[in-house]
Design brief:
There is one protein chain. The protein has ten helices and nine strands. By secondary structure, the chain is α/β, with parallel strands linked by helices. Helix 6 crosses helix 7 and helix 8 packs antiparallel against helix 9. The longest helix is centred in the last third of the chain and has 22 residues. It has a six-stranded parallel beta sheet with strand order 1-4-3-2-5-6, sandwiched between helices. A three-stranded antiparallel beta sheet has the order 7-8-9, with helices on one face. A hairpin with a 2-residue loop joins strand 8 and strand 9. The protein binds adenosine monophosphate. Adenosine monophosphate (AMP) binds next to helix 2 and strand 5.
């Protein structure tokens, strides 16, 4: 595995891979890697000839007062995980490499960036879309892998790739969870033992609604009520919404198309998100895992 820190060093490496006809996979991350990231890297390694992983804590997607400075870091562990998951290149740019002096051009996502997290993190998806577009241009991957864990992010990025004719296939990998249901997240590192127990309320709420859905419950309001019961254990519920999986509009009445039940909540000062996809037909459900998305 090659470790590179500058675009100038990365470009010739990628050019030689491309010239050799290699299919390049890309996994953008903010580091403090866990098995969720591992799953993305492994999927990329299985489907591509070479996998580029980036670790970059992108300042432009954090709002004032968010956890940019406290974002956990452990480069040595990250390097080992990348190696074990079969990454070919680890790209570790500095902030000044990605945003040199004078930088002023951004990607402005449309209405898909407004609901859910967008409502509570103004500018977040603008920052995400901009840095992902930059990395797509730097790496020029054939496939790029994102986790379902950040559901709205996958929808915004897929829309951006289509809208801007970016020649990359967006792949979505199912959320990796602990055996008790907790979605793996770098931010779980901030939870103490008691916090971790309260964090389980997120997946418990989602799984309760999913179980009811699987048993035939289709009423959106009822499904939200079912999810809300375990969620009473979090310190503050930011949102719980059942939305159309493609357009992110709230579903009223019966769930008659693929939907995403999305939650954001605080456990102590740690903000956690999670989601579950509810698909009226199994075939449609597969559409949000590991396949190029069509909106
Ligand atoms: P992050 O480092 O949090 O920016 O995440 C980098 C990528 O890993 C994103 O595409 C995330 O959606 C994905 N990811 C994070 N946690 C998980 C998880 N538990 N399962 C699957 N993918 C994940």
């Amino acid at each position: 595995m090659r470790v590179v820190r500058t675009i100038a060093d990365l470009r010739p490496l990628l050019r030689s891979l491309k010239e050799a006809g290699k299919r390049i996979g890309f996994v953008p991350t903010m580091g403090f890697l866990h098995e969720g990231h591992g799953a993305l890297i492994r999927q990329s390694a299985a489907r591509c000839d070479a996998t580029v992983v980036s670790i970059f804590v992108n300042p432009t997607q954090f709002g004032p007062g968010e956890d940019l400075v406290n974002y956990p870091r452990d480069l040595e562990r990250d390097q080992n995980l990348c190696l074990e998951a079969d990454a070919s290149v680890l790209f570790l740019p500095e902030v000044s490499e990605v945003y040199p002096t004078g930088f002023q051009t951004h990607i402005e996502p449309g209405p898909l960036a407004e609901p859910l997290c967008g409502r509570f993190r103004p500018g977040h998806f603008r920052g995400v879309a901009t840095v992902v577009a930059k990395f797509f241009n730097i790496v020029q991957p054939d496939l790029a892998f994102f986790g379902q864990k950040d559901f709205q992010q996958t929808v915004v990025i897929r829309r951006m790739a289509r809208d801007l004719n970016l020649p990359v296939e967006i792949m979505v990998v199912p959320t990796v969870r602990e055996s008790d249901g907790l979605a793996l997240s770098s931010r779980n590192a901030h939870l103490g033992e008691a916090g971790r127990r309260r964090a389980l309320c997120l997946s418990a709420g989602l799984m309760a609604a999913k179980a009811a859905f699987d048993q035939g419950q289709r009423d959106a309001a009822r499904l939200l009520e079912i999810a809300r019961v375990p969620l009473s254990g979090v310190d503050s519920l930011q949102y719980l919404e059942l939305v159309d999986a493609h357009h992110l509009e709230p579903i009223q009445g019966a769930v008659d198309r693929t939907a995403a039940l999305c939650v954001a909540a605080y456990v102590g000062s740690t903000r956690l998100i999670d989601n579950v996809v509810l698909a009226p037909s199994a075939v449609e459900g597969l559409n949000v895992s590991l396949s190029p998305q069509s909106a």
